[in-house]
């Protein structure tokens, strides 16, 4: 072997070692879609199933970098698993694309595809969706359970001159909000009639709801535009956000009841759930509890179309009477009722089997030994109530007004707890 051959062999060996080293470096980091998925029991959102339905915990409005969010879609999945959600929708703005220069993506289904892939080996249900984005008074609408987001958007080239004019009028805003490419796209896409987008969503069997109707532009008062009324009349708008992020709208609740729209509450998260909603401090994102026959997408959609929801926001439950009652019945019960020795003082244990701290006031004629009429039962806890019944009864019926639940603006539901009394 001559010296040349020897040095060639040496170089080859070095190359192989270098390649092995590089490969190990590349794969020593996780892939872009991976995440830590451990469930954190103390932050998992838990409500019991009702008599008739499964209670599905869902966040139907979230964002990622594929519109104006600040995380990759797999992080939304990771957060949802930590929060114990059953279902999540990633709903990117179709038209408002501030990252369009850095993250160009012709296919508006991309965020959903990445999220669904990330959730593949979990039991989290990922729902497709998009946010249709227009100026007020129409504002924003989410279309979920759609087959192809691309069909909900159209860039009509014949309107480029009109779009340019809009961008020119707003050039100061454009400089602050993400540059010319974003502004051109937004202006042109927004010129496509919103009714077309809503119709396309409906053609695909989508569930459509009006987002954050109470933004500050209307002094926080949700007001239906003539377009919304038209959509409601022809059955193409199905729900309304009564809660969005940190805003609860009584006017939106009144609209939901008057027009029979499904009551929705969402996080509309753009940053991290942990930053915006502090789950490590016992708080939680707003969620929609959906009462579905099965834990499947078709069953969840059917429940939404039929209006079977309750929103959980801060410590408040908001829903139509016929949805809140079965939930309260499932959440609370008399665990035991027995007389102390031979007295007429009935020891009643009431259990709260939910994440909510129940706040309630006594509506029955009975009074209590050690409590005033306003009673609290912490989440997943029981309280002991000594009821003065004046005579020994064989059954007990206690009626309460549930102060941390709403069925109409400023109206709380009532709940009757009934039990037979154990005899010694
Ligand atoms: Zn929005
Ligand atoms: Zn949004």
Plain-language structure description:
The protein is α/β, with parallel strands linked by helices. The chain has 2 domains: 41-154 and 192-314, Metal-dependent hydrolases (TIM Barrel); 332-420, Immunoglobulin-like, CATH 2.60.40. It has 12 helices and 22 strands. The strands form 4 sheets. A 7-stranded mixed β-sheet has the order 4-2-1-11-12-13-21, sandwiched between helices. Strands 3, 5, 6, 7, 8, 9 and 10 form a 7-stranded mixed β-sheet that branches. The radius of gyration is 27 Å and the shape is globular. The model has no long low-confidence stretch (mean pLDDT 92). Bound molecules: zinc ion (ZN) (2 copies). One zinc ion binds next to loops.
Keywords:
single chain; 424 residues; alpha/beta; TIM Barrel; Immunoglobulin-like; seven-stranded mixed beta sheet; globular; binds zinc ion
Give the biggest sheet.
Answer: 7 strands, mixed
Q: How large is the count of helical segments? A: 12
Which CATH class of the largest domain is shown? Alpha Beta
Bound molecules: zinc ion
Average pLDDT score:
92
The proportion of strand residues reads 25-35%
> What Rg is obtained from the alpha carbons, in whole angstroms?
27 Å
What percent of the residues sit in helical stretches (DSSP H or I)? 25-40%
Class derived from helix and strand content = alpha/beta
């Amino acid at each position: 072997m001559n010296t040349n051959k020897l040095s060639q062999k040496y170089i080859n060996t070095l190359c192989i070692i270098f390649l092995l080293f590089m490969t190990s470096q590349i794969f020593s980091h996780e892939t872009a879609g991976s995440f830590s998925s451990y469930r954190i029991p103390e932050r998992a959102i838990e409500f019991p199933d009702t008599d008739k339905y499964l209670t599905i915990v869902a966040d139907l409005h979230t964002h990622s970098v594929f519109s104006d969010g600040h995380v990759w879609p797999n992080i939304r999945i990771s957060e949802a698993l930590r929060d114990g959600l059953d279902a999540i929708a990633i709903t990117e703005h179709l038209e408002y694309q501030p990252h369009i220069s850095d993250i160009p993506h012709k296919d508006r289904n991309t965020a959903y595809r990445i999220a669904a892939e990330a959730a593949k080996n979990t039991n989290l249900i990922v729902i497709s969706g998009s946010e249709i984005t227009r100026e007020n008074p129409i504002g924003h609408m989410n279309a979920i359970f759609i087959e192809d987001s691309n069909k909900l958007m159209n860039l009509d080239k014949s309107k480029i001159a009109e779009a340019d004019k809009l961008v020119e009028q707003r050039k100061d805003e454009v400089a602050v909000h993400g540059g010319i490419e974003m502004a051109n796209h937004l202006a042109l896409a927004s010129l496509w009639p919103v009714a077309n987008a809503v119709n396309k969503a409906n053609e695909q069997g989508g569930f459509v709801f009006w987002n954050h109707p109470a933004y500050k532009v209307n002094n926080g008062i949700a007001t239906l535009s003539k377009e919304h009324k038209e959509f409601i009349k022809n059955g193409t708008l199905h729900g309304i956000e009564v809660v969005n992020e940190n805003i609860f709208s009584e006017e939106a609740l009144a609209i939901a009841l008057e027009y029979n729209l499904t009551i929705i509450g969402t996080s509309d998260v753009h940053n991290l759930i942990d930053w915006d909603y502090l789950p490590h401090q016992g708080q939680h994102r707003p969620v929609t509890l959906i009462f579905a026959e099965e834990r499947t997408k078709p069953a969840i959609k059917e429940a939404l179309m039929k209006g079977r929801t309750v929103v959980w926001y801060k410590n408040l439950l908001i829903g139509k009477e016929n949805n809140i009652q079965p939930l309260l019945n499932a959440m609370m019960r008399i665990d035991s009722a027995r007389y102390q020795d031979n007295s007429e003082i009935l020891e009643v244990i009431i259990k709260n089997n939910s994440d909510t701290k129940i706040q309630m006031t006594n509506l029955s004629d009975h009074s209590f030994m050690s409590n005033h009429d306003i009673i609290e039962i912490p989440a997943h806890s029981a309280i002991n109530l000594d009821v003065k019944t004046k005579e020994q009864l064989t059954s007990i019926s206690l009626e309460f007004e549930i102060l941390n639940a709403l069925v109409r603006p400023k109206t709380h539901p009532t709940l009757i707890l009934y039990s037979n009394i154990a005899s010694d």
